[in-house]
Amino acid sequence: MAMEYHNPVLLNETVEGLNIKPNGVYVDVTFGGGGHSREILSRLGPEGKLIAFDQDTDALQNAIDDPRFLLINQNFRFLKKFLRFHGYRSVDGILGDFGVSSHQFDVAERGFSTRFDADLDMRMNRDSNFSAYTVVNKYEEQQLRNVLFNYGELRNAAAMARVIVEARKEQKIKTSEQLKSVLSRFLPGHKANKILAQIYQAIRIEVNQELEALKEFLLQTSEVLQPGGRISLISYHSLEDRLVKRFIRNGLFEGEPEKDVFGRVEVPFKAVGKFIIPSQEEIKTNNRARSAKLRIAEKL
Q: Are 32 and 97 within 8 A, CB to CB?
């Protein structure tokens, strides 16, 4: 039975960005509730094919009964490997809607949301042994500081890490309420939710190795896409968007690409238009869309 997943963000814009050919092969690397996938399938002819990835076993319950559809229960960092395994050396377009699905936020025991008291979990892959509990209770102070500073962009990261390390000497920090209590001095009333969201984001990115997975995935897109194929990618925070933007512009995540003797730069993609953000109407009906940023690019 399909689980309750919320509206796919920037649905038409993201799928339009793929410039779908009816007999093409497309990949949705963040299947979730299947909203984007269903829209892609509606635009494919009988010879078209859609391959979807999702590492979360909950998403398997939303699998689409369609002979043109294949769902792979794996992290998108293994894109090329599993496409090859299923006999696809190249594809015509790749869609990605990064971040946490509404379903993951809304199921209290998954531990993704600041709204619920739950065990410190935050695993997108529920078979993993590495959870938010591990980060909070096992990481050394310097490691914790780096996670909070680099992934949460928190100015008080050093002090927060120190407080966590001191508190866990007395008692392991097992739940989100315990973590909030330990860090309460850093959560002034008017800013508490924003700062807590940054703390959760930092721990979640570390647990799921989200930025490493995104980098590995992006590098593979240029290897598996046909010339003229498109990537259509939605990011929700500046760390993700910066990686996508730099990769599209330079084919690199840091620095500038090398120039040839004529001063020309070889890059794998060209941007298609400017980035797209949701309309006020979409944000009103789907709060998750408020920070979304869509970038589309074409393989050269």
A: yes
Cβ contact 152:199 at 8 Å = yes
What are 158's two structure tokens? 């050093």
Other CB atoms within 10 A of residue 117 CB:
12
Q: Is the pTM of this model over 0.85?
A: yes
Among 278, 224, 214, CA closest to 247: 214
Instruction: Walk along the chain (300 residues) and give the pLDDT tens digit of each residue.
Output: 445 565 799 999 999 999 999 999 999 999 999 999 999 999 999 999 999 999 989 899 999 999 999 999 999 999 999 999 999 999 999 999 997 766 666 666 687 777 788 999 999 888 899 999 999 999 999 999 999 999 999 999 999 999 999 999 999 999 999 999 999 999 999 999 999 999 999 999 999 999 999 999 999 999 999 999 999 999 999 999 999 999 999 999 998 888 888 888 889 999 999 999 999 999 999 888 999 999 999 999
Collect all residues with Cβ–Cβ distance below 8 Å to 75 and sequence separation of at least 6. 53, 55, 125, 213
Decide which of 3.40.50.150, 2.40.50.840, 3.30.70.80, 3.10.350.10 is the CATH code for 11-102+210-299.
3.40.50.150
Q: Which residue from 52, 57, 85, 83 is spatially nearest to 69, judged by alpha carbons?
A: 52
Strands 91-97, 269-271: pairing is unpaired
SS3 246: helix
* Topology of the domain covering 112-208: DNA polymerase; domain 1 (1.10.150)
Question: Could you state, in order of their start, the residue ranges of all structural domains in the chain?
Answer: 11-102+210-299, 112-208
What distance in Å separates the CA atoms of residue 64 and residue 38, rounded to the nearest whole number? 8
